[in-house]
Amino acid sequence: MQMCKVLVENLYYDGPREGITSIEGRHYRFISDFNDDIGFTDEFSLYLISESELQLEIEQWQIFVKWNKKYQSGELKADSHPGHGGISQRWDEIEQALAINREDTSNFKFKALATFIPNGQELQYDLNGPCYDVTWHFL
């Protein structure tokens, strides 16, 4: 069992489902396993990512955080989310650069159960990551 920082949240559906975490100085993409009968589970597959991939993930996260701040204040509507494509050129470039990496399963390292724990930060989404950390229970 190990408490780790979550650096990026890529998918949230009834809880964090995909993102980037740091474990002992190395960075991993975590993806919640999906079962056709029950949906998402608390068991995650973790994949080692490169430093360059990490930097792109963080840059895209920061684009989202800046958009979300304006969205939450009412300045922007949901349809202006950069993930819709054609809204933020840089988001689209990063999305294209990461597409292959996000589908690549060759860097699989291990399975773990996750417990997400609030980290006390004020904002749900911050430039330094979401408002929770994770405890990994390695399988």
List the helices and strands and how they pair.
Layout: E1 2-12, E2 16-23, E3 26-35, E4 39-48, H1 51-72, H2 89-103, E5 108-118, E6 125-126, E7 129-130, E8 132-138
Helix pairs in contact: 1-2
Structure description:
The chain has helices at 51-72, 89-103, and strands spanning 2-12, 16-23, 26-35, 39-48, 108-118, 125-126, 129-130, 132-138. The protein has one domain (2-138). Strands 1-2-3-4-5-8 form a six-stranded antiparallel β-barrel. The chain has a two-stranded antiparallel ribbon with strand order 6-7. It starts with a strand and ends with a strand. Helix 1 (51-72) crosses helix 2 (89-103). The protein is of the alpha+beta class. The mean pLDDT is 96.
* Count of structural domains: 1
Overall mean pLDDT stands at 96
Secondary-structure class: alpha+beta
- Give the ordered list of helices and strands: EEEEHHEEEE
Overall radius of gyration: 15 Å
Low-confidence stretches: none
Estimate the global geometry from the Cα principal axes: globular
| Largest sheet report | 6 strands, antiparallel, barrel
Reading side by side through the largest sheet, how are the strands ordered? 1-2-3-4-5-8
Strand residue percentage = 35-45%
In angstroms, what separates the terminal alpha carbons?
Answer: 10 Å
Helix content: 25-40%
Q: How many strands?
A: 8
